[in-house]
Amino acid sequence: MMRWIYWSGWLLFRSAFQTFFRLRLRNGDKLLMEGPVLVVSNHESFLDPPLIGGLYHDEMVFLARKTLFKGFFKWLYSQWNAVPVDQEKPDMSSLKTIIRELKSGRRVLVFPEGARTLDGALGEAQPGVGLIAAKAGVPIQPIRIRGAREALPRGSGRIRLATIEVTIGDPIDLAAEGLAGSKDKEAYQRIADRLMAAIAEL
């Protein structure tokens, strides 16, 4: 069921991005609107998850730092379909949860870099996203965000007015590229690098 808390947040953030950040969407016709999709994007700001979630008209699952799940926010993030991940001691539990969500037909957002950029440059992809992509076997949608760091940079608690641009890339089919079915860390890293390269090209 569509939960009202999720959709209230969706409406609030979507309106804010249109009104205050003059959101520009490029290649919106390439968005995969049906079926399970692994969405991969660069990570500029805390604004990124609601920014991308607002592009779609059904619910999305997100990864979020485990330290954010405290008190009221533990309940709120759960209502927003966030899956906690321990960045200091990563384990397989969150990755398995994401793979299950994808195989059940849901859309999931993952940031291959694993953390927000400090200077605006793209970081290196972590092998975990390659594992998810290989195991889930679903279409992959690369997305590039620009301007979110200017709106809310890492380490800042103050939102600034800025133009945010989101560019949608062509879907990636790992099976068609001969990368599906990988079962070792080196192969997962190659997939992660492939996805990060697709983001960089946008």
TrEMBL record:
Occurrences of domain Phospholipid/glycerol acyltransferase (ranges): 37-148
Pfam families in alphabetical order: Acyltransferase
Alphabetical UniProt keywords: Acyltransferase, Transferase
EC number: 2.3.1.51
Any GO MF annotation of the entry: 1-acylglycerol-3-phosphate O-acyltransferase activity
UniProt GO BP: phosphatidic acid biosynthetic process
Domain of life: Bacteria
InterPro entries assigned: Plipid/glycerol_acylTrfase
Entry-linked CDD domains: LPLAT_AGPAT-like
Biological or metabolic pathway of the protein: Lipid metabolism
PANTHER family in alphabetical order: 1-ACYL-SN-GLYCEROL-3-PHOSPHATE ACYLTRANSFERASE
Protein's name according to its UniProt entry: 1-acyl-sn-glycerol-3-phosphate acyltransferase
Species of origin: Haloferula luteola
